[in-house]
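Take the subject:
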Amino acid sequence: MGTIHLKLPESLRSQKLEELQPSYFTGLPDYMPWVTNVQVVNGELCVGKEVSESGCLCVPITLPSSLNGQAMPGLDGQSPIMLMTATLVERLEAYRLLTELARGKVNQLRNQAADWISGGLELPEELDQQITQASKLFCKAVCESSEQVADREAIDALTKAIGVGEKLVDLYIEQVMAARLLRMPKLTTLLGCNVSRPATDHLDDLKAAFNTIRLAVNWSEIEPEDGQFHWEPLDELLAWAKPLGMTVKMGPILNVCPSHLPKWIEPLLGNPDGIVGAILAFTETIIERYRDEVKYWQLSAGTNDPGLLEIDEEESLNLNLQMAAIMQELHPSGEYTLSLSQPWGESVATGQPAYSPFVFADALIRSRINLSALELEVVMGITPRGSRFRDRLDFSRIMDLYGLLGIPLHIHLGMPSSMSEDAKADAAFQYQAQGSPFTPEQQKNWCAQAGLLALCKPFVSGVHWLHWSDDAPHLFPHCGLVDAQGNLKPALEVLKKFREQYLL
């Protein structure tokens, strides 16, 4: 194991270790995590990694209020945002944390601008000059001998680079969307939402926002006892959805979360053959029942982190391949996807026995699984299955990384609108600690910024919101578009505008 030391600025030396604990190392070229151990000793962040190779360090940092004008959560001067250094090699001398984070962000900004320019982006001179200004601010931080002054200048470089990065992303979205809409007046991208109960209120709003609907499958409700099936709620949901005139999907058949696993399988945990056999039996039963009515399916969600099932990575890969084989045999005309949680792979850094999600996806595709799309679950502000806030340069980079796999992507977006108790959410999922509470306006802003970036990517063929209403059973607290009292949240208006302006 290698260890790297970084000098903490005075503003962070009083932070509790748990606030810096989410820090982790990633390796190049795929930016997937290594198992990482974090300690704070004598004002230094001591980060141990499982390998001795050089890598990039991701650290949650709350930036100053000079970014208050930015709409993205994490850029509000109150909430932490994950930032990444450039490559760090092992050495005896400690690095300056803020300087290295500034180096990483300026490097990412310059490289992304160069990549997009080579792809045809027209960069205005004013924005080019602002990128240069961010580079010069970083140079001042590097050359400064006083640590305190260097930290202030590094913060200036960071905030400048992030602010310019947001402008660069806006420009990229504008030009890519304009180019795509020149070729076709409306995009064929799927814009969808998960529904677990028939939506009787605000049905017109649902139909105005989405062209696709996914009917949630809860194994624990359907098969509460081994071999005893209760199909009535799902039958009712399907009967409600079919007349809506929307593309209807069903799934995930297997959702790796406590509220969706029936109690009767608990004795099978630790017995891979038993648990896999039970999952495959349910898969076969549900496909046989609905294959004449549903063409589009989501096979699984969260199986890239199979710890809850007490199976290992290879067994989880084989499980997905066997589920796909059942689909191909029983429903050869059906199309199916599967969803990966935590696309940045944060849980791998804590030592969870799982492949990184990118490696997991790559292994599945190399096994010639016939997916119509790969889905990424991008849930901000939730633990343990969610991710920490990042700026849009980083969000764009992670989508581009998975785009290299060569199959279409579907992006599942979600973020809470409140930090109050949510009785109908899965109790296993909690809010991540952050400086400012979640609000409906924050949710709206993130939906607008992240959603439009996902929509503009040519290889993204679907964008989905996690669930419709907080008044129906769901996984993640307060991530719906309708609150528990039946009031519409402002994020829904954003999605309606997406549909009206860009989509069929």
Q: What stands out?
A: The chain has a mean pLDDT of 93. Residues 147-183 form the longest helix (37 residues). The chain has 15 helices and 19 strands.
